[in-house]
Amino acid sequence: MRPRTTPEWNAFGAATRYAQTHDLSEPAEAAYLEALDEARRDILRRLVRGVIRGDPTGLPSPELVPPVRARIADAIPDVDDVEIPWEVTRAMTYGSVAVLPLPPTNKTLLGPIKTTHGFDRHRIGDDSWLVGHTRVDRIDHPVSLLDLLDRAGAFVDDGQAARFRVEVAESVANLALARLADAVLGERLDPSSPVLRRVANGNAAADRPAALERIVTDGHPFHPAGKIRKGISAADGLAYAPEFTDRIDLRFVAIDRSVARETRSRGRKRLTDRLFETFGGLEEASSDELPPDRPIDRFAVVPVHPWQFHHTILDRYEADRRTGRVVPLSYTHPATPLLNLRTVVPHDTDRLSDDPPHIKLAIDVQTTNVVRTLSPNAVTNGPQVTDALEAIASRESFDHLGFLPETAATCYYQPGGPHTEGHHFDDARHLSGMVRMNPAHHPFVGTDAVAVPAASLIASVPGTDRPLVCDLVSEYTATDGDGPDPRSFFEAYVDVVVPEQLLLLSKYGIALESHLQNAVVVFDEARPVAALIRDFGGVRVLDDRLAPHGLDVSVDPYPNSDIDADGEKDLYGKLYYALFQNHLAELLATLAHECDMDEAAGWDAVAHTARGTFDAIRAAHDVPADRVNRDEAALFEPSMQHKALTAMRLRGKRHEYVTSRVSNPLAREDR
């Protein structure tokens, strides 16, 4: 085993030094090379699953056949007598084999499928194969499959093929590095403690939710480039990624208010005032370093990621620095980075003001499909969506659904807007910041409760191969007293996360993007008691449903924003994909695969709760019955629209969705 791609070689030195520092192997590089082999397999599995599930343009549709040699051979076109490897036909292990001809290449992809979960979420076998006229070869690297897909015409153009090769290769290298961090994090945990306490207390972090978020090391569960961090080096990853460090130095930049856009939700302070209140000494440092002829109240202050500070701010805003309109400050404060790199949690909270916020930053780094800057759209829209959600929450008094409000934001902003593209738009999105509520301080999180990022539930407890949720199930006591029961646990979970989100959609026309990364679930011991939703950039609002409620709030989005829903289908595409296809489907697939849960029983529980919720909405007579019926029918359609992330990258799409249809596990006739 040796590195093959440029990203694998580029990470080699940083990985070796990290392994040497933490005494992971002898020789030091052995740990990285071992992790590299499994990372290649993992990313290949995601790629094969995405190609099979996403039905990309330019490729034939795959055929799923039983794992029988004769049936597989019959599905392969124009092939002589080729011996199908026994690994492909292990009927005791695999449920079926996906057969995908790649006609111009004279090759056929064989993707063994261990099992198929809800929404056609295939669990791909350890190895996939390419069948030619006279031989069968195991695919040993995901980039090798991309080369075949390119020859087969799957890419929109040569440039996108080259970009996606780099993205996938970088994901392999970054995933291998992350696996080294997993071993280090595991050394610090006390195995005798309950799992949430074990992880929260054993991982260094600014607070308990941040400690739990640090264990999510594998990236996006669907995306073959789910560990891409395009723009930063492997060494930068060691310095700034949450799996490797609990502390980065948060920086700050002052902006003359003549070139600043400041927003805030009702009754909240401006971002600058909130920062001065939170960080002792920041106001004094700002006053000392600003131009002496300009008072401090002429400036807004924006928090900045340290990587962005050194790699982008100093050069991009050089002209403004010369005129004193942009002033980088020397003040720093330690903060824990979260999963998306750009959100951080301040350390030393006992010395800060009450309820230190989460701070969302701009960073010119691509993860999955998007560069993680913070646009003027987000700066403008977030506080407005906050006002709408808080007005609804005040009226409804939700028992289990909470929001993490985006209370204030600021960005660099040249006069003469709105800026929707070009260099003025880019200037705005590269120097911007936002604060939102820290989940640890939400009223639903009592003294003994823990706010757990939902993505952490399917992540392995460091140092083990066991997902966090399985340990929670083991600690969960069923109401009948019979001990650990994954079905009872999942039913309690569904009762917390589903009903009030459906009410919000049906009654008020707001669809939350409550996928695993955006949801924080509150646990009292091992019992789920509430769900908190963060990050309002993906929310959809249908004004025809919201406006009649007379809430004295409105959402006037920044031009070219996606918040305004085009219709009911837009709402369904957002909530039903994020909550059911992503969040619940991935959690249930993990419970079924790792915790011996009957997956069909899990979908029965989801269907029962959803049906009961729609019945309750109808019975309240607050929502037209025909509307509720449409919302319910859409959730239980035989198939659902699926966001095909792999197909999006093959076609070069970032913000425009490429979709396919997948079977709906909620649509059983007996439900």
Automatic annotation (TrEMBL):
<dbReference type="Pfam" id="PF06276">
    <property type="entry name" value="FhuF"/>
</dbReference>
<feature type="domain" description="Aerobactin siderophore biosynthesis IucA/IucC-like C-terminal">
    <location>
        <begin position="488"/>
        <end position="656"/>
    </location>
</feature>
<dbReference type="InterPro" id="IPR037455">
    <property type="entry name" value="LucA/IucC-like"/>
</dbReference>
<dbReference type="InterPro" id="IPR022770">
    <property type="entry name" value="IucA/IucC-like_C"/>
</dbReference>
<dbReference type="Pfam" id="PF04183">
    <property type="entry name" value="IucA_IucC"/>
</dbReference>
<protein>
    <submittedName>
        <fullName>IucA/IucC family protein</fullName>
    </submittedName>
</protein>
<feature type="domain" description="Aerobactin siderophore biosynthesis IucA/IucC N-terminal">
    <location>
        <begin position="210"/>
        <end position="458"/>
    </location>
</feature>
<dbReference type="InterPro" id="IPR007310">
    <property type="entry name" value="Aerobactin_biosyn_IucA/IucC_N"/>
</dbReference>
<dbReference type="GO" id="GO:0016881">
    <property type="term" value="F:acid-amino acid ligase activity"/>
</dbReference>
<dbReference type="GO" id="GO:0019290">
    <property type="term" value="P:siderophore biosynthetic process"/>
</dbReference>
